Inverse folding.
């Protein structure tokens, strides 16, 4: 086929194009545009995964109305958006409550460039895909487990506003925001290998509690070595830890004794339905 761009460049006057000329030209233009598109869903030139960040998190809400009241009181969350009524429009990074979910059913949605390629990579690393590919307004999603059984989701953001959001991840800054997430793994060495290979995370040294921070993520998180459980752990930012613990107790929840960490005092908690989470008052 004659290259339409060559034809256009060689003539000064009008011509009568063949019937499929417009179709060929449109296809060529689309191909050229795709080659220069640098959106968040592109795969890097060498086929490696760009650094994954947190796209969305969910906490279980066995009774959604009770959960709404509890977290509005503790964190100021204005829960009520989304098709299921559990989206939290005023939390950073983005998140929501899962109506009717079991108390342990919390998860993170982690961004990938190409979800099919990521699923193949996950299987090659010993992980499992536990759901069919779901396509919806915000993109494509699959439920997964790593090679040690920890559950999470992979998310390829949809083009447009969701890709823009994924391209510009934001950190917690206010009371009630998600300060940190940690994926528990029994074997820290295996965990580092799995998540660095799958998600492009680069880890620092293990902390006192076995935690390993993914240093090249914008949304703060990592893995926790030697910790029991197969679900992500969350710590939410608070302005005053003591006051928050007192409010949790008054609302029907409970909290452990605070512990001092280099990042600030923290406490493990449960809400009034037994859902576990943590709170931290960051230093500085």
């Amino acid at each position: 086929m004659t290259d339409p761009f060559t034809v256009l460049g060689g003539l000064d006057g009008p011509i009568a194009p063949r019937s499929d000329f417009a179709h060929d030209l449109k296809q060529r233009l689309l191909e050229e545009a795709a080659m220069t598109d640098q959106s968040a869903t592109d795969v890097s030139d060498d086929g490696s995964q760009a650094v994954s960040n947190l796209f969305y998190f969910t906490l279980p809400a066995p009774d959604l109305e009770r959960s709404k009241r509890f977290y509005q009181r503790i964190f100021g969350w204005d829960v009520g958006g989304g098709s299921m009524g559990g989206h939290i429009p005023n939390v950073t990074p983005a998140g929501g409550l899962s109506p009717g979910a079991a108390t342990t059913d919390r998860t993170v949605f982690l961004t990938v460039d190409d979800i099919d390629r990521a699923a193949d990579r996950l299987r090659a690393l010993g992980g499992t895909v536990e759901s069919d590919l779901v396509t919806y307004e915000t993109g494509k999603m699959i439920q997964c487990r790593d090679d040690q059984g920890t559950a999470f989701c992979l998310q390829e953001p949809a083009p447009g506003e969701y890709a823009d959001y994924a391209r510009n991840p934001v950190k917690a800054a206010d009371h009630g925001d998600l300060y940190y997430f940690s994926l528990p793994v029994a074997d820290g060495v295996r965990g580092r290998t799995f998540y660095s290979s799958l998600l492009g995370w680069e880890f620092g040294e293990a902390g006192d509690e076995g935690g390993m921070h993914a240093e090249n993520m914008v949304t703060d998180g990592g893995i926790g070595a030697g910790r029991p459980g197969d679900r992500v752990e969350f710590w939410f930012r608070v302005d005053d830890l003591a006051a928050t613990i007192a409010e949790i107790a008054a609302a029907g929840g409970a909290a452990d004794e605070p512990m001092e960490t280099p990042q600030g005092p923290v406490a493990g908690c449960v809400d009034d339905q037994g859902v576990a989470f943590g709170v931290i008052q960051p230093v500085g």
Q: What stands out?
A: The chain is about 25% helix and 25% strand. Confidence is low (pLDDT under 50) at residues 1-45. Residues 258 and 267 are 5 Å apart (CA to CA). The longest helix spans residues 21-36.
